[in-house]
Amino acid sequence: xxxxxxxxxxxxxxxxxxxxxxxxxxxxxxxxxxxxxxxxxxxxxxxxxxxxxxxxxxxxxxxxxxxxxxxxxxxxxxxxxxxxxxxxxxxxxxxxxxxxxxxxxxxxxxxxxxxxxxxxxxxxxxxxxxxxxxxxxxxxxxxxxxxxxxxxxxxxxxxxxxxxxxxxxxxxxxxxxxxxxxxxxxxxxxxxxxxxxxxxxxxxxxxxxxxxxxxxxxxxxxxxxxxxxxxxxxxxxxxxxxxxxxxxxxxxxxxxxxxxxxxxxxxx
Length: 268
Ligand SMILES: O=C(O)CCC(=O)C(=O)O
Hints:
With 268 residues, the protein is of the alpha+beta class. The protein has a single domain, classed as Sandwich (Jelly Rolls). Helix content is 19%, strand content 24%. It contains 5 helices and 14 strands. The model is unreliable at 250-254 and 258-268 (pLDDT under 50). The site of 2-oxoglutaric acid has 10 residues, from strand 7, strand 13 and strand 14.
């Protein structure tokens, strides 16, 4: 399988050109092992339930009909509401600087999210483009997501996969991944995707129109990631005026993909 070029932090002008071409950057060493360990420690109370994350926690994998042995894809939205310290680390400074270098000085943090696949949670995150989840008429589609590996992530434990260059194509039609849940999915041909294993503290940076997925976790270890999403300050204000703030009070409605976010109360 093809490998994506690896880069080093901090992300600079050269990387901005690479991002414009590929729509994704792979940074093996965004933060140190100590910083990663600190982040794991900060977010564990959210995972183990010591901190109640209420409706911000959901199983993104509940599109599968069979009853799961373990929560399939644990997703916790707006992590910094519960643990503001997650934004105090060096990586948050690096990620914001990268977003501004790559997409413009008006980039700001829009969303944080935790994604955990417990040992044996073998449900893949379906192929999708983040833009399929957004308000369809958003006037400015610049967006960057940083997916930070909180431990070594392999193909077997559910690393991310991307279709380099797909960010320049129109957003593909998406459908619900199943009769339950809020995951969307789209068609990607075999061989289009490139899997990106990462060491702990490594990160991928992907464009909002990038086709991506993640494998299931077939190992006996965890697969935790912290995601930070950036877009322009004006677009964050535009979203909030329309009641869209990436919280999940109404996880799924009956609307069609690409219109769902317009339904009253759907905040995700
Ligand atoms: O971690 C995963 O399983 C998927 C994450 C994802 O889709 C994203 O960060 O946009």
